[in-house]
Design goal:
Length: 122
């Protein structure tokens, strides 16, 4: 079974150029703790509630003037939509993560897969 068969289609994201304040409002509205960060239709990182606390609030930065791309976590791990779910589940276990962004082979962000999506298959 392929990741594309179990993933959640393109979830909510935040644009790199948006303010951290906008992102915080979106996190609260969606009741989530992380948002994929997009720029030019590509995944460039993840912004977590922890990123906001540590990299913005604790350092005295203004969330209304700080752009998401300045504080988002870079080097985000991801998987491809055509990968086998068993292999992705193993990778998630190895990385100790519960969710991975999903990209196509052109590296366009298209969804997210969680361990709960995969668990019944392995």
């Amino acid at each position: 079974m392929k990741v594309s068969e179990v993933m959640t289609g393109k979830p909510q994201t935040i644009l790199a150029e948006q303010s951290v304040l906008d992102a915080a409002k979106k996190l609260a509205e969606l009741e989530v703790s992380a948002l994929p960060v997009e720029q030019d239709d590509r995944l460039i990182g993840m912004l977590t509630d922890r990123d906001i606390v540590v990299r913005v609030l604790a350092s005295g930065r203004d969330p209304a003037k700080t752009r998401v791309e300045e504080v988002a976590s870079k080097g985000t791990k991801y998987c491809f939509d055509d990968e086998d779910v068993a292999q992705v589940a193993k990778n998630m276990d190895d990385l100790s993560v519960r969710r991975l962004p999903v990209v196509n082979r052109q590296k366009r962000f298209i969804g997210i897969v969680s361990i709960e999506d995969i668990r019944p298959q392995h």
